[in-house]
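Researcher: Last one for today. Full complex below.
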Amino acid sequence: MPHRHDSVRKRCRNSILRQQLTHHYNQPLLGFEGKKLKKIIWRVFFTATTVVALGAQASSRDSISVVGSSTVFPFSKVVAERFGRATKFRTPTIEQTGTGGGFREFCKGVGVDYVDISNASRKIKKSEKTLCKKNGVREIIEVLIGYDGIVLANSVNAPVFSLSRRDIFLALAKEIPNPDGSNSLIPNPHKTWREVNSALPDTKIAVLGPPQTSGTRDAFVELAMEGGCKKFAWIAELKKTNKAHYKSICHIIRDDGAFIEAGENDNLIVQKLNANPAALGIFGFSFLDQNTDKVQASLVDGQQPTFESIADGRYPVSRPLYFYVKKAHVGVIPGIAEYLAEFTSEKSWGEEGYLADKGMIPLPKNKRAEMKARVAGLVEMNDF
Amino acid sequence: MNNAQPQKNSPAERVQQSLKKRYRAEARFRAFGAFSVILGLAALLVLFVKIISSGIGAFQQTYIKLDLAYDESVLGISDPRDEDQLAVANFEGAIRAALLTRFPSVTARSDKRALYSMVSIAAAFELQDELRHAPDLLNKRRQYWLLADDDLDTYFKSLKAGDPYLGRVSPQQVEWITSLIEAGEVRKQFNRRFFTSGDSAEAEMAGILGALIGSLLTLAVTLVLSFPIGVGAAIYLEEYAPANKFTDFIEVNINNLAAVPSVIFGLLGLAIFLNMFGMPRSVPLVGGLVLTLMTLPTIIISSRAAIKSVPQSIRDAALGMGASKMQLILHHVLPLAMPGMLTGAIIGMAQALGETAPLLMIGMVAFIVDIPGSIDDPATVLPVQIFLWADSPERAFVERTSAAIMVLLGFLIAMNALAIWLRQHLEKRW
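Model: Here's the assembly. Have a good evening.
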């Protein structure tokens, strides 16, 4: 802009600003590069705004939306992917929100704005049913898909532990029954495994486990801790008389450092066990299955966690896996019926199916047939 | 000073005496600074070495050579030009037949299963694609390099590294693999799939492209919304806003917003965009909106700093020349402040690129296979993909996690380089 500079100079000849102005206006204010940049910026904005405007128009959904348990997540995603590749439908979107978070989304309502399927590593709770009903979600199909074992494992460089559920309770509960036999509680005094049970090694109690938000933690507490807790007759009696107190005894894990919350990431727990052979870790069976060179499972009540022992219920710390489907969405969102058919096919959840390869423990044959019939007939839960 | 000792030395001597001490203090101070820099660099180096050494393997994938026939009777089709027939053709059967021909001694059912599991399910889809493009291959026999299963891949890679991982392969499979290796029928190839496909439940098929596109779409929405709004807000606050309590109040709030944990913005996005406006879950549009809320304060603050740095003399001159306030801003202040604003915007974008927490709430932490084509397709972003892979039980995802981190870091470095370039080429100095 040379002409502008000249005129500026002429007009301002005697003004106070002259010195400053000549100084600044001698350099081009907005040079060639600046102009080019301006053009580029406008062009970027224009294209991007068009994209936003076009994108915002469509809003109906053509892919299935699944939320829920992070334990079911790896199984759900294999089915979704195979389904997406083998059919003309889009691959379902699978979110891992945790079982509770999944039901919160699931029970928000019926319609394309709401999710279709919720995965769960436990049965739906009464409070969640109430929430669903309140929001008009009434017809729900419950499908049991298989089992998952929760293992207590340590590094392969350490000796194998053989624990009973009673040992687990006595080692990890915040308060334990008074050893003098009276019906009272004392803060957990145990520092080493040998103090819990003289057959166990003389190492410090250090257990790495998931935080309270985790479904694995819930299941561990319910199956392992409560299972051991019930072995004390007077506590078992409490269940009938004072359920809240019973739960507070059986479900509360000690917080004095013997139980270490190690985050939701099971891989991390495996790595930490590898680094610290004295510690035990709590995680899902599929992680044990993938890392047999690093960690070994402890025996619980004399049972090794294997496919067979979990499937037939001999291994005590195992839980059922479910998913829940909104009946009203079948036929509205394309592909739900086909997705359910893929999930419940023998090549998927059968004894030699691809879900078993991923570490899911299959249902017994008659259960599979029952669930398959339920899905095929879209039979909703009747106690809803 | 009653208790002070009488000074015997002259001032010059005293200075001389304290000099040594001062030099030592100076040297300590310098050494401390240098030590901090070295510590920082060392941490960075360790991080890079760790990530690169564990992620480099993911750029190569194991393949098995098999003598394979597109046999009409095995595939169960007659016309490969017919898409319907192609969709149901039994390519897995063809691969199984080829495996059985290669290892004729395998007869037991469980052994066969172990044998079949050595080839990835992706191989069947690859063969389908090939036959679609070259229908003449029907009934012909050829040698193919087929993608191996992730367990075999992990074994083969760990074998080469001298520490074979036997956790997921049976002794029998090891025998077969050894025989394949001896015949030169196993090799590693560049893993093109990693850059051309979306996520997958099977580690050997998983790729980063879906997350990369998702990140780009989300950032595009963020940039388009946050930059004009941020710059507009900055101009108003700097140039027009009256200096009163209300303006101060707004300013304090913007500065506070910049420090709010990002997950809060996710909750806000869930409440407003999903629950109030009924927008779909898991889409880059909503992700971009949430990240806009998050980056706006950053952009406003840096834009205001850039506007402030335009010399007063230029404003005075423009006004003195009869320019209106709007002309002053559009013709002089904005062009001069633009490099600073852009740098701020890019830093804000780089921050948004690395966010996972706010996206958790709006459903972008999800398993998504299809590569998103627009901002209302379900999508995920790079950091979320890293998080999901780090959480997967399969061993082969470990190296993929590191590889994805490398891609994300590359992306970030490119963005920062752009910011530096913009600053150096466009910035005016006085």
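Chain B has a mean pLDDT of 90. The beta strands of chain B are 60-69, 141-147, 186-190, 366-367.
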